[in-house]
């Protein structure tokens, strides 16, 4: 009986429906992963854009082939890092095949080239830049908007804080009520105009709205992180790893 009570109590405290997103550690791991998406995507994109064309141009002088192979090998190592990052921060489960370990340097070079997962992974690394740009824009807009609303009581009297339109927006909602001998139309007119925060009470209301928007933003970021975790799980295929790296663990 007491065990059941503790379980029920623990469940109610650990996973509240809406507010729990603030206290869950996974939320902030997701935010960290999203924050890293843009700089990592920019690095991957720069590596591929600089390395691949350079290798192609140098093919005529033989040097290009080692450059291209080097880009493939480095990309393969970066995919191992991406797998570790997704498993650590997003709690993803991406399998890693260790049965094909080898000490032969020729196999070390040949495996990334002949493995289909490497080429799929390179496409993933290239797409990471686009995903990173979108993520950066979403995070920046949400952070600036939520912060400006939450801090409204601190600066509402020193700036023009409010909702501004070029002119009134008028619209109406109509509802038809049927009777035995006819019908009646009920029309509700609405007018939306500009509104400026002029009192502390209004600023506090705006701040409360910012808190609600902050909660919704955290849920949106969690959803975005889950989508990126799914993308990583699909794109990063099991591959052989033959060297010990800090991100080598299967956890």
From TrEMBL:
InterPro entries: Put_sensor_dom. Keywords: Kinase, Membrane, Transferase, Transmembrane, Transmembrane helix. GO terms for molecular function: kinase activity. The chain crosses the membrane at residues 31-52, 58-80, 129-152, 204-225. The keyword Signal does not apply. Pfam families: Sensor. Residues 33-233 form the Putative sensor domain. This is Putative 2-component system sensor kinase.
């Amino acid at each position: 009986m007491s065990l059941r009570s503790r379980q029920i109590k623990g469940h109610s405290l650990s996973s509240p429906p809406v507010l729990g997103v603030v206290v869950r550690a996974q939320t902030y791991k997701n935010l960290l992963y999203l924050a890293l998406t843009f700089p990592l995507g920019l690095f991957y994109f720069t590596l591929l854009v600089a390395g691949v064309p350079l290798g192609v141009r140098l093919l005529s002088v033989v040097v290009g082939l080692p450059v291209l192979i080097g880009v493939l090998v480095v990309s393969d190592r970066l995919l191992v890092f991406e797998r570790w990052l997704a498993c650590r921060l997003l709690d993803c489960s991406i399998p890693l095949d260790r049965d094909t370990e080898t000490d032969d340097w020729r196999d070390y070079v040949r495996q990334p080239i002949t493995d289909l997962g490497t080429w799929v992974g390179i496409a993933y690394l290239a797409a990471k830049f686009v995903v990173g740009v979108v993520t950066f824009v979403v995070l920046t807009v949400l952070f600036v908007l939520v912060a400006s609303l939450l801090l409204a009581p601190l600066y509402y009297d020193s700036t023009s804080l409010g909702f501004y339109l070029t002119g009134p927006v008028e619209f109406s909602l109509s509802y038809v009520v049927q009777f035995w001998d006819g019908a009646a139309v009920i029309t509700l007119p609405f007018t939306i105009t500009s509104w400026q925060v002029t009192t502390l009470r209004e600023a506090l209301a705006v701040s409360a709205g910012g808190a609600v928007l902050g909660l919704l933003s955290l849920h949106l970021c969690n959803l975005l992180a889950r989508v990126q975790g799914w993308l990583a799980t699909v794109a990063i295929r099991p591959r052989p790893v033959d060297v010990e790296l800090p991100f080598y663990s299967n956890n």
